[in-house]
């Protein structure tokens, strides 16, 4: 005979997913996980976007050998499962004398993956700016670099905002992979609490925290898109 | 002695000779001469694919000619010693699809090169932009974005943008072809005004009525060669070549 046998279905649902006692017991623990998600997430998003943007701008110059290296990096890091990168950095690199803290491993791995995707997104943006924009800018005497900076990249960035937001969110959720190397963010901690309490409430809390963490990002992205409307409706 | 001083002063502002240009196996220009005297308006006509756009783009090296020579105001544009970015300031260009920068206001469209190429202060550049906007009849559009303007207005901004740098010559590539018929007049009025101010222009266009009224010279290009050239009256009323006649008959229908 267990605690839930005598309950109605609704009570059982509430007991399992919205249990106040369990929430009180594990709340603080899971909330600490949120700080890991936010800080590591910000680091990953900033690194990924800045590096991806830089790589796309370099690629626009059109040096063949450099572009080859960029494409190799991008294609590999877009294809590899993030967990594989994390495990190689954390468990493999010490063998060649490079020992990195787990949080740094997580940041480098996911930052590199996001950089690879961001490069492709910005590059797609750059190539979709009409050729006439280059012609117009160069015809007024602007140099290649000035044209890229003042005319092409601002337009490429606007095109990249929606796909970049999606990608940033999905990569940041991969922070949960950190549990494999001892970094416990929201989902990792919620999972432990779930096992210990035999109750799903920690998972509910984790899910709500994810929403609280990512909604501001989505709103910021929408505001940015609005800012980039340039007189269109 | 500099490379520019080696070129004797020419009576032509733009002197392109024997210009050839291929794209892959296709030779688009097969040795074209284009001679433009200062203050004149030259019309380039010819079927699509005849090389008009390519010729214009070779004149400011947006396309690199394979051979030939292009002298602009006694500067050899094809010399490796010529600073092409500095030279391009002297050569305005207006495009069929306007090519305004959609992310910048009209004012910034005009001032970008003034600030970054000509090194003007923002205040001076803005004053210059206002002057140009008045000249093309759009003094109240400085804060608008291109998307908020009609095609005719956008093209007049395109003209203002190239004119702001005070070029010696303006090249226009089918400036009215993308416009609704009722908007063509406003753009041609601006072109006419520039002509009356003595600004040298080369225009690829099929606006024959306008050419008859305003062009000093009409050059008919076909298959990458200059087939015939002369006054607007000569070309339109008394064409000497069969190909010219056939082309004119086609565009009249």
Write up this protein.
- Chain A is built from nine helices and no strands.
- By secondary structure, chain A is an all-alpha fold.
- The longest helix of chain A is centred in the first third of the chain and has 42 residues, at 20-61.
- The radius of gyration of chain A is 23 Å and the shape is flat.
- In chain B, 47% of the residues are buried.
- In chain B, helix 3 packs across helix 4 (122-135), helix 4 (122-135) crosses helix 5 (151-164) and helix 5 runs parallel beside helix 6.
- Chain B has a six-stranded mixed sheet, with helices on both faces. In chain B, strands 2-1-4-5 form a four-stranded antiparallel sheet, covered by helices on one side.
- Chain B contains nine helices and ten strands.
- The chains are: A mainly alpha (233), B alpha/beta (253).
- The A-B interface holds A 130, 132-133, 135-143, 146, 150-151, 154-155, 158, 228, 230-232 and B 57, 60, 62, 85-89, 91-93, 95, 97, 99-103, 112-113, 116-117, 144-148, 158, 161-162, 165.
Element-by-element helix/strand order of chain A: HHHHHHHHH
Oligomeric status of the shown chains? heterodimer
Distance between the termini of chain A: 63 Å
Q: Please state the average pLDDT score of chain B.
A: 92
The CA-CA distance between the termini of chain B, in Å, is: 55 Å
Uncertain residue ranges of chain B: 1-6
Sheet with the most strands, sense and barrel status of chain B? 6 strands, mixed
As residue ranges, the low-confidence spans of chain A are none
For the largest sheet of chain B, list the strands in their spatial order: 6-7-8-3-9-10
Largest sheet of chain A: none
Helical percentage of chain A:
over 70%
Rounded to an integer, what's the Rg of chain A over CA atoms? 23 Å
Compute the number of helices of chain B: 9
Shape of chain B, please? globular
Number of strands of chain A: 0
Q: By helix and strand content of chain A, what is the structural category?
A: mainly alpha
